[in-house]
UniProtKB/TrEMBL annotation:
The keyword DNA damage does not apply. The gene is araH. Part of the binding-protein-dependent transport system for D-xylose. Probably responsible for the translocation of the substrate across the membrane. The lineage of its organism: Bacteria, Bacillati, Bacillota, Clostridia, Eubacteriales. The keyword Protease does not apply. It is found in: Cell membrane. Keywords: Cell inner membrane, Cell membrane, Membrane, Sugar transport, Transmembrane, Transmembrane helix, Transport. Signal peptide: none annotated. One of its GO terms (cellular component) is plasma membrane. The chain crosses the membrane at residues 30-54, 60-79, 86-104, 110-132, 139-161, 181-206, 227-245, 251-268, 298-316, 336-367. One of its GO terms (molecular function) is transmembrane transporter activity. It comes from Clostridium folliculivorans. This is Xylose transport system permease protein XylH.
Amino acid sequence: MQTVQKSGDNTKHNLLDGIKSTFRSNVRQYAMLIALVVIIIIFQILTNGILLVPMNVANLILQNSYVFILAIGMTLCILTGGNIDLSVGSVCAFIGALLGTFIVSMKMNIWLAIVFCLVAGLIIGIWQGFWIAYVRIPAFIVTLAGMLIFRGLTITMLKGLTLSPFPESFQKLSGGYIPDIFKGASALNLTAIIAGIIISIVYIFLEAKKWSASKKNEYESNSLYVMIGKIALVVVATNLVFYWFAKYKGIPVIFVIVGVLVFVYSFFANNTIQGRYLYAMGGNEKAAKLSGINTNRVLFFSYVNMAVLSAVASIAFTSRLNAAAPQSGTNFELDAIAACFIGGASAYGGVGTVIGAIIGALVMGVLNNGMSIMGVGSDMQMTIKGFVLLMAVAFDVFSKSKR
């Protein structure tokens, strides 16, 4: 009897130790995830249940899609040593102006125009990346110059005018939904329900495989109970989101695009050599260089990638706005930077994840959406968001000093 009780006590003790260890090693990310859940619950109560109405959930994704995309790229820049890109808003506006010129004014095929705009983003990234990585002008200065240059070029190209409307096929990139292949079989969009189940199964398989490999190779890993709890939470959240989609119009096209980007960049950062170079450089650039890492190339890549993702974000935003305007992209860079820092990226570099940046973007998005539903003025919204950003970075500094 005593042996059974002792075994039970050990299991409970190991479980608590596993939870503490997991939380401690990912303190910023888990803290903001908890904060996100708390914020959602608070606004769900304050808005009398409007926040989590299926239509509003879909609109939350659509409205913040550009922030998700920019935050992914900004995370890679921050990882290299706390570097940021101040030009992304102006680059988005410039690419939007190109889209308006190509599609609205010149009546160009939308797919050809999109390819040209992505190439333009690549060229912009090469231009800025060269000065930052090889001439070693501080990223702050180069991207500040880029912010002014591309805003000026946008105004010059549009001549102060707004170009619209875009073709309906272009608008569907950010406002369209995946058709239900089981249309008429149910009041719900069954395609969305099945997609949620498939994604859950794939996630369970990948997590179980990862945990098994860690145990086999004797790497540090979570306890079985912690892993099961984590999987259960993710699976419930995933299927809940897809259920909301199923009750509305289905899966938004832009949600699929963002989902693919999150998966690809998470895999790149965590499972490839080049991705680990970003963390190594941010942790200690001199040590990374001495170990044989070409830090100039790593820095160059991060800014080229940022510009290309800025072009993608511009396509998503312009499609939703249905217009190319000179003032487009204002404060986009601040939204992306705030999302990264709130989501767990360190202001000193070397720490941060793509998933964390998405959590940070969701925190900002829920705050914006919830306060808008409540009728809070834009001045107060800016004050609250600024306070949240300050507290997130202060938490990073405090947790570093404690360690």
